[in-house]
Known about the structure:
This protein is mainly alpha-helical and 486 residues long. It is built from 20 helices and 2 strands.
Amino acid sequence: MTPADFAVVAGNWQAALPALIVAATGLVVMTLDLFLRGSDRDALCVLGIGGLAVALAGAVFMWQGSAAAAFGNTLRADHYALFFAVVITAGSLLTLLLSVDYLRRQPIPSGEYLTLVLLSTSGMVFLAAANDLIVLFLALEIMSVAAYVLAGLLRHEVRSTEAALKYFLLGAFATGFLLYGIAFFYAATGSTQLDVIADAIRHRGLGPYGLIGMALLLVGFGFKVALIPFHVWTPDVYEGSPTVVTAFMAVGVKAAAFAAFARVFTSGLGAVAGSWSGVLWVLAALTMTVGNVTAVAQRSVKRMLAYSSIAHAGYALMGLVAASRDGGAALLFYLAVYGLMTLGAFAVLIAIARRGEYAEEYADFAGLGFRHPVLGAAMTVFMLSLAGFPPFAGFAGKFYLFSAAVSAGYVGLVVIAVLNSLVSVYYYLGVIVQMYMNDGARPFEAPSAQPYVVATILVAAVGTIVMGLLPSGPMEAARVAFLSLG
């Protein structure tokens, strides 16, 4: 092997390094699970957290270098991919930290759970870096198949089994649309690489095959990010899955799916943005409206957060509708912010649940603010941030999204988004009202009984406040990341 060949091979593996570290950690966890028993399995969580921390550090270190194309330009280690690698690995790391106490209290096989989370995370990181539709499809399946199994890990519960079955069946159906769309793009351009597709479209236009392919891809991505009308799986899957798995899906799956969505439509189809921006406008307006209006009627906080995630997908889509540098940067910033505050909210649900019981109804939060002030204050931060109140990160995220949409001329969409934000205040404040204005007879366990859960909540709460008060740094990183798409 010549030095030039060695440099190419080394560059290939370096570009895939964060995802490979996570995947290797998952395989090591799976192997060690065969030899560990009982409390020794806590070491598996520590190992998983360590592997994710190393992958996170690797992505941060690679940020200082230049963008690299790997494996025949099917994978890209540009700032865009590295930004999502940081967001995804950080979210998964907090999920595993949250899981240390959760796995002690729930009848979930820890080795299987940790392995699936890590392998799904590796698929997410590959998905954000994919510059080829075939690689994108493979990464999507690595992520999704693990998520299907995770949803059904509470095997003794009917609703968990139902969630896994619904997620699998509808996910497989949506994947068929995605794969068929890839086939049409190959027929239209003779390639599945986004660079080649973009060049062909720029010179020859979209054409009938390209138009059909774009529509089919939109269906596939619409399912993954829960856009209307492809959202029907979300409430039941979020409610039926183990709460820690729901948090993982709300943070990681949504961020990775949006990463692939934005890369395909910006890098591959950016030259014909006029052909899809109007459709995305309608989808964004419908998604945020249906999500918020339906969330108002919910009595389960977990199910409310599911419809909330649908509404926030509509907000995030505004960044892609704007089809501009500021819109793309706002999308990336908002996904990072949303992951932090949503993970924290689900962590509070876990913290107030007693062993063998659930705490998912609004009434279960009655009196929490006075009996456990730290948990009450943290949940208040998350609810106000999700509603878009200053000075929290959710306000900064919405401000950047709305500003980008106004600058792009989509004033009507911004008006709809603002009205929807006002609707969302009702159900987010409903949780706060229960915590501080109602007395509850339900007993709560002391937070000290779940130190890792509380640590996760505090990290998420501090991050939500800091990113709200000092958003310029993360926003600049998001801007650099989006610009690397070219």
